[in-house]
Structures are given as C-alpha cells and as structure tokens.
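Thread title: Can someone regenerate the structure for this chain?

I was given the following input by a collaborator and told the matching structure tokens would be attached. They weren't. Posting the sequence so someone can regenerate them.
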Amino acid sequence: MCSEEMSQIRIYSRPGCHLCEKLVEDLLPRIRGKLELEVVDIDTRPDWQVEYGTRIPVVEFDGKLICQYSLDEDAIDRILADISAS
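Best answer:
Regenerated them for you:
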C-alpha cells in the first residue's frame, strides 16, 4: 500500500505571540485537508532565535518565505492552486 504524503507549511512562532495565534487562526481553515501545518517555537533553537528574533510569525513553504507578521492570502491561494494542479 502506498500513501501520498501531504505537503507541509511551517510557521515560525513563539508562545504568547498574539500575531502568531491570529495567523494560525486565519490559515487553518484555508489549508485544512490540503496542507499539513507545522508550528515551530523559535525559542527551542538558538539559530531560529537569531534568524527570526521579533519578526514573527513567519510562514515558510518548500523552503521559501511566504509571508511574515500577517497572512498573505493570495500567496497561500497560489500554493494551494499549484499543489492541486500537480
């Protein structure tokens, strides 16, 4: 039996970040069933703390920056269109 893995989108975040919580809240309904969401705490790795610092949340897909601070709905829609076309 072969199962196809769902593509993953990552959010760099930290606990207690209201912008991060809002972005996740806005993103989840758009991607549910289409993309797997991974929310990572930047405070768990020193390299993430240095790279992202206070410029969170950051959304990344396929190793590329998609948006930061707030959700770019058009960018997410383009990703969803691309993955559904492939």
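The helical segments are 18-31, 46-52, 73-85.
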